[in-house]
Each structure stands twice: as C-alpha cells, then as structure tokens.
Amino acid sequence: KRVVNRASYYLPFFLVGIFFFKIIAAPLTNFFWMLDLTNSLEVIVFGLIFELFIYFNFCGLSLIVFSIFGFFGVRIPLNFKQPFSSDHIIDYWKNWHRSLSTVLKTLFYSPTRKSYPTSLALFIVFISSAMWHGVTVNFLIWGSFHAIVFWISLVLLRNNIKVLPMIVLIFGVIIGRLIFADSNTDRLLEKLMFSYDGIGVF
C-alpha cells in the first residue's frame, strides 16, 4: 500500500517533468541559431527563449529526479519553487535552483556578511556562482550584473517601492540570461550595445 501511495503521489511530478523536459524545452533548441544575432530586439527575444529553455529543461530534469527518488521512498527537496511567480529578483533566486542557492548562502554569503557589507557579500556570492558555471568573461559579467541587480532590488524594497522591483526582475532575468548564453566576448559586447537595425528574425 505504501508503494502504491508513493507512486500515486510522485507520478504527477514525473509526468510534469517529462512534459517540461521533452515537450517544452526540447523544441526550444530549434531557436538556438539566434545566439548569433546582435540586433537588440532579436537579442532580447533570444534571451527570453533561452531563459524558458533553461527553466523547463532543468526544472523538468529536477522533477524527474525528485519523483524517481520518491518512488524508492527517498524524499529530496524540490529544486525549483515557481520562480516566475516571484515579485522581485530576490524571491526569484530563492526559488531558482534552491540546492545551489543554499550551498552558496552557507559557504559564501553568511560568512562574508558577518564582516562586510551586503553589497560585497552579494558580489562574492554571484561571482562564486559564476565561477561554478564556468571561468569565462561572460560569466564574470553575468555574476557582476546580477549582484548589482539584486542589490538595487534590495534598496527599492527597503524603501517600500513595490512596482520597480518587478520591472528590475524582468530586465534582470532576460538580460542576465543573454549574458549567460554567449561565451563569445566580442559578440556579447556588441549585443550589450543594444543596436537596432529592424527586425530580421522572420
């Protein structure tokens, strides 16, 4: 009976994981050719597409792993907790890749925050996260960018400004993801100039 109960509980997670991974994420790879585009509108569109790919691919895999462990009676934490329902980027990062966030907070943020200001602690955390993903220029830019965006959001929230953090969240996630995606430094810097030459995607 316990096995049946576990199966009935974890099967939906498994099916959603497969749906995210195979039905939503996999077809988005057809748009990866857009990585070469440098026109501002096309760059933003690709940043949005790539963000969705990363989420549905990684979240799908995480749900599959979560359910497989659950089938065997091992309860592990959910790695994603609806990050796109967040009102600001602070909650977004709390709900995105929660296992890595916990490790980074324990190893870097908490010890650093005891002796240094929040801004420096955030910078160290995001640079550490960047180095975990890869030692490249784009990841260094990505880490620095998100540390700044996170700090700006903290300042806005502390001053009880509620609308701007949502705008900063959207801007931070899309621009952050296009930085994350492109390891070609010259092309990335061209993208970040945000030039517009008309629509050439379609």
Overall residue-averaged pLDDT value? 92
**What is the alpha-carbon Rg in Å?**
19 Å
Structural class from helices and strands? Answer: mainly alpha
Low-confidence stretches: none
- Percent of residues in helices: over 70%
Counting H and I runs of at least 4 residues, what is the number of helices?
Answer: 8
Q: What is the number of beta strands?
A: 0
- The coarse overall form would be globular
CA distance, first residue to last residue: 55 Å
**Secondary-structure element order, N to C:** HHHHHHHH
Approximately how much beta-strand content do the residues carry?
under 5%
Biggest sheet character: none
Explain this structure:
α1 (2-28) packs antiparallel against α2 (40-71), α2 crosses α7 (164-181) and α4 packs across α5. The protein has eight helices and no strands. With 202 residues, the protein is mostly helical. The model has no long low-confidence stretch (mean pLDDT 92). The chain is globular. It starts with a helix and ends in an 11-residue tail after the last helix.
